[in-house]
Amino acid sequence: MKHVLLDKDLELRINDPFESNLSKIILDNLPNAIVSCRLPDFLFEYANSATLDLLGYSRQEFLSYSALDLVHPEDIQSVQSFIASQPPSGQGNLEVRYRKKDGTYLWLEVTGTLIPPAQEDSVVIIISHDITGKKLAEDHFQYQLSAQQILLEASKDFNNINVEDIDHLINATLGKISRFDGSERSWVILLSSDHYTISRVYEWCGDGIPHRMLETEGWPVNALPWWSQKVQEVADILIAPASEAEVKDGNEEAGRTLPPVKSQLVAPMFLEEKIVGFLGFETISSPKTWSRENTVMLESAAQIIAKALQRKQYVVALQSSEDYYRTLFETTGAATMIIEKDRSISMVNENCCQMLGYQSEEMIGKPLFDLIPASRTAALQNYLDSFGGQPVEEKFQYMTQIIDKNERHRKGAMHIDTIPGTGKSVLTFTDLTEFNRIDRALKTASSINRAMINAEKETDLLRSVCGLIVELGGYALAWVGYLRPDQQYKVQPIANAGTDGGYLAKLNIRLTDERRGRGPTARAILTSQPVVTPDFKQDSSFRPWLKDALRRGFKSSMDIPLVENDKVFGVIGICASEVDAFDDQEQELLVNIAHNLAYAVMALRTRGERNQTARDLEKSLAKMQRILMQSVSALAAALSTRDPYTAEHQKKVVQLASAIAAEMGLSRDQIEGIQVAGNLHDIGKIHVPLEILSKPDQLTDIEFSYVKTHSQSGYDIIKHIEFPWPVADIILQHHERLDGSGYPLGISGDEIRLEARIIAVADVVEAMAAHRPYRPALGIEPGLEEITQHKGILYDPAVVE
User: Fold this and answer.
1) 242 pLDDT band (50/70/90 cuts)?
2) Which of 495, 640, 659, 697 could potentially form a cystine with 463 if both were Cys, beta carbons 3.0 to 4.6 Å apart?
3) Residue 618 lies in a domain
């Protein structure tokens, strides 16, 4: 809590004109929001500039209110209780929401002091600090924890429930997720195997909400509303704005209509990469906006339900099959094999081949124990020897592992039974790897988020996160390193957990080093992107550390930059004892952990330095930088909305230009300037008619001359923004050429900024490689041929090299 102590002499001389004016000048230039009001009605008498800037009012508007007028209605009672409970000293602290001029609310941490204390006409000095970001972060963490808990419970429930109860559990799960998400109706639609009709519908409705989708059971698929074809085309989640949901939700041509809704989210349900149905959430009383976090949760729910329905489908198929044994063998949903008396494999089902990565002919004749880890063979051998091929009353089932063709260990439940009179056995392995992964991922994210919320010290936070990654993720080593610019950009390990064995002491990573500054960790820092190394032996950039890593059993790794305000300040490194340990889901989880950790570190640093005036200034400067970068993002987003081709082109130009700049040895500051300019280099195309930008044919001379104005237009848009880099000049010059044949200025040679020359080369290569409205992608080779052929004529030779 921030406290401001008032000088006692200032209290005594507050009525002196000179002293009063001096005090107001001092208060008006402080970065904190400071106001005064007089009891008993709490009318404002003074507000400094920081207060007016924070809340958006003019001084005259603000002073027309009382302190209680701007308090959120839900907080008024707590404020009144707080006032009534104050001690005679007349000083206390409170967190409260205040209304801005635009009608939104900010969370403020306020400190109130009575001058003089405990009198009828006392003046209350209120000092406020904006804690909205902190409150939003707490809400964000709490949402993640709650969502993860719901998904984990649903996953466990579906995994353990009897098949005949799955239908009931689906409806119960829809209700639980809908209540958490704030939806008023949710449903699952299953398609027939031929995708012609709707085979089954599940629907949950909130209190007073009528059923809507149950009537669609048996409909032809082409009679579904407009979103059906759309979701199948994009194979991704679809959110309908209120206008589309109300106007278009029905298929009048097919003679089918449905009541309108205010908002609608539809997620495809996949099994084996095919859409088998849809999961939908709707609001009826008022429009709703789904955030990215909402959609991730609902997509996960769709796949959990899809897996449960698949399990039900398999069981129903088994029960109705005429050839029960063959169906049992092929469609159990588990890997099944026949084991001969000599412990060799004589038959396998398709699930077994898919799970282990073998062709059936590769497995026939293979010894069973080739698939079992050495540490687990003895128990299996003893069991098989014990009954000698005779039937036994008690079936053998336990949790174990099977090794697939890529030498990955898959965890699951093994069930063995004998075939009477044959000496053969039926072995069924239910693969629980994915369920275990989801369970572990949710536990890891939940535990780490709790550690971030509860941490008091930065080093404790880093050690705690490393420990949880190792403990719950099953990795050999996790470590956090900070970038030290004052030590030749050395990456210094700060915290770690797991098997170190002196490995980190030998890292010696410096970005300025020719060999040790080009490895996976350095690339993650330089590119601000995660770097996965699937196999250390196959990555030549890892050679400086290969022997030390293999000696400790490390075989693969993932390095993730810690970024704050687009600036890398550190890295998380995770080492695994097996190759290809980081699949797409694992990478997404670890990247999310790194983002949350970076935010938590910054929050801790801010919290620890809040009482220092110097830190207040740094925070103000950081906020200005964020606003500036947000402006860049907003401009880029505006272009993305209007012209996706150009927006995607800008992103790829940034990646290529950044890589070229790094290879040329430019400073980090220059590279950042290139990234910003690259993100905006075609912003001037906002002024070019969309029909020209998206024209599917070659442009005419007049149309192309119109397009060529985008460099000047971009310069005019950006020139008044005070970037720390020459962004406007780079945008203006990125189509200039060494021989003066470019546009719009026709300058040549060193008159063109180096950054513009770099973006020019990246622009040409990416433009030729990528798909355009008037032609398909040409690939990388024509672009390389173009810059090589005109090296030293149109393009800077150093950049081309």
Assistant:
1) very low
2) 495
3) yes
